[in-house]
Amino acid sequence: MNLWQALEPAQLITLSICVPFVGALLVIATGKVPNLREAVTLITAAILLSLVLAITDYTFLGTTLELDVVELFPGLGISFNVEPLGVLFALVASFLWIVTSIYAIGYMRGHNEINQTRFFCCFALSISSVMGICFSGNLLTLFIFYEVLTLSTYPLVTHAGNDAAKQGGRIYLGILLSTSIAFLLFAILGTYALTGTLDFRAGGIFDDSHNKVVLSVLLVLFCYGVGKAAIMPFHRWLPAAMVAPTPVSALLHAVAVVKAGVFSILKIIIYIFGIEGLKDLVTTDVMLYIGAATIVLSSCIAMTKDNLKARLAYSTVSQLSYIVVGALLASSIASAGAALHIATHAVGKITLFFCAGAIMVASHKKNISDMAGLGRKMPITFAAFAIGAISIIGLPPMAGTWSKWYLAIGALETDKFIIVAVLMVSSLLNIAYLLPIPIKAFFSKPAEGAEPWRWSQTKEAPLPILVALTVTSGCCLAMFFYLQPLVDLVNLIPGVSTK
Amino acid sequence: MAEFIDLVLLAMLALTALRIIFLKDLFAVVMLFGIYSFLSALIFLNLDAVDVAFTEASVGAGISTVLMLVTLAITGRKEKQSTHSSLLPLFVVLVTGAALIYGTLDMPPFGHPDNPVHQHVAPRYIEESPKEVGLPNMVTSVLASYRGFDTLGETVVVFSAVIGVLSLLGVRRKKKKDLESGLESHRVLHVVAKIIIPLVILFALYVQFHGDFGPGGGFQAGVIAAAAFILYALILGLPKAFAVVGPRFLQWMAAAGVLLYASVGLYSMYMGGHFLDYNQLATDPVAGQHYGIIIIELGVGVTVFAVMLNIFYAFGSQAERSNVQ
Amino acid sequence: MDFLDIVSSILLLAGVFFGFSGAVGLFRFPDFFTRIHAASVTDSIAAILIIGALLLQTSFDLNTAKLVFILLFLMVTSPTASHALAKSARHGGLLTLAETRPQDKQGSAK
Amino acid sequence: MLEQHLAVLPIILPLIAAPLALILGRSIFSWGFATLVSGLAFLLSWQLLAAALSDGVLSYAVGGWAPPWGIELRVDAANAFVLLAVTAISTLVLVYSKHSIEKEVKAANHSLFYTAHLLCLAGLSGILITGDAFNLFVFLEISSLATYTLVSLASDRRCLTAAFRYLVMGTIGATFILIGVGLLYMKTGTLNMLDLAERIDLYDSSRTINTGLAFIMVGVSIKLALFPLHMWLPPAYTHAPSAVTAFLASTATKVAVYVMIRFIFTVFGIDHVFVDMGMGLILMALAVVAIFKCSYMATVQSNVKTVLAYSSVAQIGYLVLGLSLVSVSGLMASMIHIFNHALMKGALFMAVGAVFYRVGSVDIKDFAGLGRKMPLTMAAFTIAGLSIIGVPLTVGFVSKWYLVIAALEQDQWLVAALVLVGSLFAVIYIGRIIEAAYFQKLPESRSSENIKEVSWLMLVPMWVLVIANIYFGIDTSLTTEAANSASEWLFQTNSMLENKVMEGEVLEGHAIEEKAQEVSS
Amino acid sequence: MSFILDYYNYWVVVFLMMAGFYIVISANNLVKKIVGLNIFQTSVFMLYISMGKVSGGTAPIVVEGVTQYSNPLPHVLILTAIVVGVATTAVGLALIVRIKRAYGTVEENEFDNKDDVI
Fold first, then answer.
1. Nearest to E60 among B11, B68, B139 (CB)
2. Cα-based distances in Å from D415 to A182, B155, D216, D363, D410
3. pLDDT given for residue C108 in this prediction
């Protein structure tokens, strides 16, 4: 698995951040020749995956990978430190980037999108900053890459350039930047003022000497400061960002960006507060129940949405809060569930988005009510959709089962029965808003008044799209049976265990 | 007696100021301002500040008033009724005034020889400067030597003023026949002016070089010399004045004055002293001080003359333009 | 108090008197030309008398010379200034009191 | 020779160059000469900073007269640091101004422009370096007069009223300073700042001294456009020629802030200003209001220069906030922000000037579609804009970091939060412009116009500042070190002075009367 | 009584300053504003000169037999300040002339645009 043994291990971090960045530059350089440009994207993605695999190798071997790049403030700078949680996230992101790139090529060409060079360039930039978030060694580094991620995805959101896209972009940037500057930066600075350090340390950096009230406030600030985690009421940006092209929604708003959010929260809780330290704080429970409320409420909102991408977006909001809840339960097993959910939800949700995009490319349909009977024309797409939906719901034999399982066990362990109930209700709601879509598509007749000539021409989406969604839906299935490597990885996280 | 005169003059000043506040006729306002300046010059004289009185009389009552009058010739002489409320300004002024009155309460008593200002720093000027600098006029010693850097700054301020005025108004060169300017028909004025102007220039030179011993110096001399040319320009018209000293030449002069001043400083640096250290100018420090002061006063005089005259040219050519229109 | 002092005081008082009357005239006279007449009383005769008085107070040194110069200067400039003012006013079309008063009114006023 | 006179050279170099630039007459010569001189001044101030960092303080007695009788120039880390920023910006702006001025100022006035610029630079350097309270007033007036001239040189008639308003306000401010200095002089008999500091402490609760303090503070506040005395600034910055705005926005108010720092820390002393007079709370409140009110005003303007002008007033709030925290780190945050804000605003105004150069207007609607037509200019604008917002890896972030940390150190959690919330406004007002530039189409009416990138002479200085924005956002060692030693130095002098008085030891002047001895012997 | 004798000068000077200040901020006409500025500044000069006075002293020019001189330093400062004042006045008036040409008025309430009001 390790193709990079010749290199100094720490340099792998540099490379994994630089490779997508260089890729972005090359994309600009080759912008005039689309085939070459797409080749650059794919090759970059492949190199990145191999790098991350190599890092994973080292992580399992127990090698610590650390790198201090530059000192911004005395004793504080951009530094990287590889730890298992980050590796998990990096694996998910880099693997899905390849798949998404394949998909994006089909989608962008099939849809005749404008500004494709800008699109692929920003895409690579976002991946670069996601890698930075994964491997960040302190809060400052995390914050910096978090902001870079926000800014580099902004052009992707406003890609269409029309009024709706600009409006969406404003909400996106407005909420994400505002929360990060007003809350997250404030919390980081507060942490720094209290402890004098921002390093991620096993067991957290706060100790008993710190005022619990202040820490409680900081926890709230951190949770809301990471606006990308979309905890209500700061979730509006996520549906707004759905104006972006579907590959963006798929990778960034189902995987990279939102997962960067919950990953940050998870990382902050594990390495800044410490899972043990969390138990003493008043606001842990408050935030826990807000997370639970987010799960239920956004599922309910998802039911009312007819636009497929909007429904999926609210579904994402709901699923993100699973991870937040898992982290805030302050138990090692729930945290493991949360970490695993990053991976399992990612493959599930990306499948769903791929399908939504495929439907859009093939039949130009956005609304669920128009999709009745479409399953017969696009069987592969809707089969994949069904697999993804089942994974999200958490039914065997799909990947989502495991993470929900651990979450539920964690909730039971800590005697938070309300959370258990919420998980159950939410699963039911998931069934109610996701499963009808493939069922109707396969078993209903097309609605009256549909355009017959168009209907007859509809067929499966282009090959790259089909390949991509087959791969991800296959993953949903495979991860149910072969989750062990990931579980091992999660068990390496200090204070977290599946047992 | 001095206190009594002081009080009378202050009362007159207060009346003048009050009158200015309420008058709407700007011509009268400007004339009253001239009177105000002149009265304050008298106060300065009464308070032993002869140099300041001299300057205030020539600048405040002289140049400033002339410039304001020329401006009025262009802008008109009536102030319109104000529309906005005068309550806010009144409030601001009352607060500021109250603060100042509050500040006066701890002030050292007026005219008392034991006041801190007379105990620290100044005694050295009074006791040592005749020996160190060698001039009887302490004001000139302090101005040109101890605080020569301030005076360099002052010269540069004047220079900046001409830069500002020229960039705003510019001086238009006109052909002589373009328009009839000056006061052609005033025979008497012509004759008298021809008598007086040389005398005024002579007086300016006296003030320039006598500044070391009595009140006066480069600044006052420059203003007086400029006044002579202003008189010439008023009576014979700007084109003729331009023929005597043109605006372009005046620009050069203004620059040259500043450079003359600064070059003294540079030379003293070259001789191994600090900037503007006149002791280095000659083997005998006191003689060096003397040379230095004479040269820098000349620089000040040249710059001030050139600037004041050039500013007048700029305003004058604007006023003539508006007369023609 | 010697003789010179007495002469000087008399001159001074006379000067003050003329100066004062000039000021009164400036306020009380009806039109421009009459007022300029009053004003020129102040800066001609009053000034001469006062400077003359001061001359007697000096001990005939540099200050005397300065005063003489001031006197000469005033004697040249102030009549010229009054003249220039009056002429400009005339030039600008300002009429005297007699000219502004209509003929018949002049008759009835008597 | 050079080392000996290092302190006086940055003042007299532009001072002497100004008349020469006028004599040169031709626009191109004046430009080249002024740029050269400004560049030399930059090198000198670099030397000066190095010397100040290693030696602590450089004192220079002009005319060879020992202070307090003569005028003293005092260079320490603090003013050398600000001077470095001022001369650097001046040089870059001069390079930039050649084309910009050709477009915005009529040809006859070009050499006057460069003369006035040099005069302004000389004035600002003088304000920074001088150690004499009255000399400060003189240099303040040199720079102010030059500034009024510079503002009024634009072709739009509104620059005239703006300049007049500036002149009236500025003169009132200067007169207030004059009154304040007079009151201090009356009570102490000296004008030398260090000497003043020693003697003021003898009269801790004197009403005259307190009034003098108040007048100086109000006067300086007018000059630095502290809310609510900022009304002159937005019109002046909006209507002045772009190069002038770029220069003034990044230097003039900064120098005024330094004057305030100097008066508070080395003349009056912290205890006097903050403990006895309670100025800290007033300044802090005004600063916070300035941040919010003016940031809000910036979001509703349609002229981009006005937007940035209001943003400047808001940023002045940050500067004042830092020093009102009364701590080494707060002062350091202010010093860093003085430098950093100069970098950001310089770049922003240069970019806006470039747009004006090509488009002839700087309304937000005229920015539509410029992202494609002028990619380099708009990229510069975007990066500098992100810096204003305070995005990491830019200098804006560094400033904000230190400011908030300083506030937190003093347990001012509310202030820290307000600072961050206030900076959100920047997201809005910068966002509006960037959105117009990149995500709106060029209007039909303009598509025929030949809008293209500006020449390299304008781009290079702009990008130097942009790169500085990023460089000093990553490698903060230079700014931090200089600002830190500057603020520590200011605090040290302050405590040193206070100790002296507590020990009852009042110095008669602080130097031996070498001069007097020389003469008598 | 001695209290009043000690301070009357300052108080009148303060009154004069405030009169000038009031003219600056309340006047409608720009020329009058400049006149106000001048009065304001001239009055400040009086404050300085007042503090330099020594009762029974003479002008600071060395004369045989005189020992009590007034303080020369304020005189020097004010000489400089007067020059600064006239420089500002000249630039201000030049601006007024240009404003008159550009707008046709120098009255504050006659500017069409609210932004131009000074």
1. B139
2. 12, 46, 26, 34, 10
3. 46
Contact A303, A428 (CB under 8 A): no
Distance between CA atoms of residues B160 and A196, nearest Å? 52
- Judging contacts by C-beta atoms under 8 Å, the chain E residues touching residue B311 are 90, 94
Q: For residue D277, which phi and psi values (nearest 5 degrees)?
A: -95, -15
pLDDT of residue D174: 94
B and A touching (3 or more beta-carbon pairs closer than 8 Å): no
Domain hosting residue B94, numbered range: 1-120
Do chains E and C touch by CB distance (3+ pairs < 8 Å)? no
* Binding-face residues of E in 67-86 toward D, CB within 8 A: 73-74, 77, 80-81, 84
pLDDT at C107: 46
Closest partner residue to C80 (CB to CB) among B185, B189, B199 is: B189
Residue C77, pLDDT above cutoff 80: yes
Range of the domain at C58: 3-100
Same domain, B97 and B173: no
The predicted structure's pLDDT at residue B284: 87
Q: Is E21 on the interface with D (CB under 8 A)?
A: yes
Quick check: D95 pLDDT over 50? yes
pLDDT of D53 over the 80 cut: yes
Please check the confidence at residue D375 and state whether its pLDDT lies above 90: no
| CATH number 1.10.287.3510 given to E2-53+70-116 | yes
pLDDT value at residue A193: 86
To test the contact with chain D by mutation, choose from E34, E80, E115 the residue with the greatest count of D C-beta atoms within 10 A, namely E115
Contact A181, A148 (CB under 8 A): no
CB B185 within 8 A of CB B20: no
Give the model's pLDDT for residue D507.
40
Q: Is B185 on the interface with C (CB under 8 A)?
A: yes
Contact D252, D245 (CB under 8 A): no
**Is residue B199 within 8 angstroms of chain C, CB to CB?**
yes
Tell me: the pLDDT tens digits for A258-317? 888 889 988 888 888 888 888 888 888 888 889 999 989 999 998 888 888 888 888 888
Q: What is the pTM of this model?
A: 0.89
Helix (H) or strand (E) holding A79: strand A76-81
* D399 compared with A71, residue with greater pLDDT: D399
Q: Kindly state whether residue B138 falls inside one of the protein's structural domains.
A: no
CA of D405 vs chain A CAs: smallest distance (Å): 6
Amino acid of residue A351: T
Query: For residue B259, which residues of chain D lie inside 8 Å, CB to CB?
Result: 16, 19-20
- In Å, how far are A91, A245, A316, A467, D294 from A103, measured between CA atoms? 18, 12, 20, 8, 47
Residues of chain B with pLDDT under 50: 177-178, 325
What pLDDT, on a 0 to 100 scale, did the predictor assign at position C1? Answer: 62
Residue C34 covered by a domain? yes
Residues B321 and B207 occupy one common structural domain: yes
The ipTM estimated for the assembled molecules is: 0.87
The set of chains that have 3 or more CB pairs under 8 A with A is D
What's chain D's length in residues? 521
B3 and B89 in a single domain? The answer is: yes
Q: How far apart are alpha carbons B304 and B220 in whole angstroms?
A: 9
Q: Chain B contacts of C91, Cβ < 8 Å?
A: 185
Q: How confident is residue D442, by pLDDT bands cut at 50, 70 and 90?
A: confident
Closest alpha carbon to D137 in D166, D184, D179, D186: D179
Q: Which amino acid is at D73?
A: L
Domain range summary for chain A, segments of one domain joined by +: 11-491
pLDDT for the residue A2: 64
According to the model, what pLDDT value does residue D512 have?
A: 35
Q: Is A193–D435 a contact, with Cβ atoms under 8 angstroms apart? A: no
Instruction: Tell whether D161 lies on the interface with E, counting CB pairs under 8 A.
Output: yes
Q: Has residue D177 got a pLDDT over 90?
A: yes
Residue B179 and residue B66 share a domain = no
Question: Any idea which residue has 């005046």 for tokens?
Answer: B250
